[in-house]
Prior knowledge:
The chain is of the alpha/beta class. The protein has helices at 15-31, 93-97, 107-123, 178-189, 221-229, 283-290, 298-321, 330-339, 342-352, 362-366, 377-395, 402-417, 425-435, 440-451, 504-511, 566-590; strands at 6-11, 40-45, 129-134, 138-142, 149-153, 160-162, 164-167, 193-195, 213-217, 237-239, 242-244, 251-256, 455-460, 463-467, 470-474, 482-485, 487-490, 531-533, 539-545.
Amino acid sequence: MSTPRRTLVIVGAGPRGTGLIERIAANAPDLYASSGVEGLDIHLVDPHPPGAGRIWRAAQSPLLWMNSHAEDVTMFTDETVVMAGPVRPGPTLHEWAAIEGSTFADRQLQGSYLRWVHEEAVAALPPGVTVHHHPQRALSVSGSRDGRQQVWLEGSPDPLLADLVVLALGHLDAELDEDQRELAAYARAHDLVHLPPDFTADSDLTSLAPGEPVLVRGFGLAFVDLMVLLTEGRGGRYDGDTYVPSGQEPVLYVGSRRGVPYHSKIGYEWSGERPPLPRFFGPAEVDAILALPGGFDFRRDVWPLIEKELGFAHYHRLFGVHPERTAIAWTDFEEKYAAGEAAEREALVASAVPDPADRLDLAALDRPLDGVRYASEEEFQDGLRAYIEGDLSRRHDPSNSPDLAVFLGLLSVYVQLIRLGDVGPWWHGFFSYLASGPPGPRLRQLLALSRAGLVRFVGADMAVAAEDGVFRASSATVPGVTIEARALVEARLPEPTVGRSVDPLLRQLHVDGAVVETPEGLLRVDRTDGRILDRDGQPHPRRFALGPYTDVRTPGAFTRPRTGGPAFRQNDATARAVLAFLRDLACQASA
Length: 591
């Protein structure tokens, strides 16, 4: 007796959708094809090219780089990924492209790599499994919990019928929040320029006039892209450490909450023993936090364990590789560190690590300008240039290798935090600031632009006022200084909130009450397999979601080799749940 072909709709064909197909291909021989079930149609819905998706598409400036070394980018699993499915190894970006591992590839090359991975994943699917790409937007999804789903596409009169739907939407655009709406309205009323949070490659920068001051709020990776597009992108060039302007550049006045750029990517290789992680923040600690009556508070219950974990990674490396910079034996230090509370550990470090530069101070790292005041704007420009030069020097000097140990600690912590769900926005910003900053060459370019007068630093806790027909920026870092401009750019991605998302499918689910938000606005999903949860906390049997807009968000859809790949683990769990459901459905139909 023949059975109807089963159908899976994946909304989003970027790296996350591609990773899911790779895991379907890896698990299908065991979970689907081996059961005698034949026939599966996978429908990919995305207006952008499969593999690359929106963020990594070819149609963007070749001046825009990745912020990871090519050797630190992979879409393939290895034995460090804790998952039920089989490992299917494959090349990193640098192996595939035959480039130096330390290269910061442009995004177009990464897009080519992702397209190749997609093609390889599709080719690895068992016979009878067919992939169809629909270059359209998904508008809505309907259907009962126990029946086939209907996925409606832009421009199509009939829906796709699906046994299961997976939302792999990636980074989402969002409606403006109240503050941004007020600024946008003010700009319209006074003929000013206001560019709200956006993926920089999609922003229309033509309204930012040459020579004019532009206020920029945000000092992370979106700012780096903006800096590149408004300088080299307008015909300027670098002659060594000197920037040669084209005359088409505006003058960027940049500030943020911290007032400093993200830390440079580390520019040396790891050698020797890795810190044995997790040590103080692992599965047992997460179990205990999840069992707390009334829920957990991140600052009270989670952050102290993270601090201890990162400190352990730091000092394990310091004592192991640079013992001449310590005052006691590692065994003594480790025993006292493990047993001590925060104040006791602080006293231990002060006595055992003579040079303050060798001590890990996370609060000072997070807010380096807190309480710092400069007498003049020019003094601050000099001071921040010195800070950036110091960061570049430290991040490229292996004698400071405890910094790299902390980076590995951050990755370990992130893997554990996924089980806790939504821990609030601060952690993700802190992680990106320390672990996901720009390539060193970009910060050297920033220094050159600062010396050329085309980038000016505003300071920490940058305040923007809309008054007297202009925008004005100020910071307590340089008391009494105000910068006036007719243009304001919010250099950051929109917050990944479900309620303000402009994605029509997600909005429709939100309006219908078919999804639930966390207090931070993230989509609640089952942490074991990604099924979307309803208001009663029950997982929808036929709908899944993966990505940064969910409360099990990961550092990215791809990762460094041999670091556990939390996104890969999620993809595997979802792929196995999808295949098992479709297999059982087909078997029931043929019974």
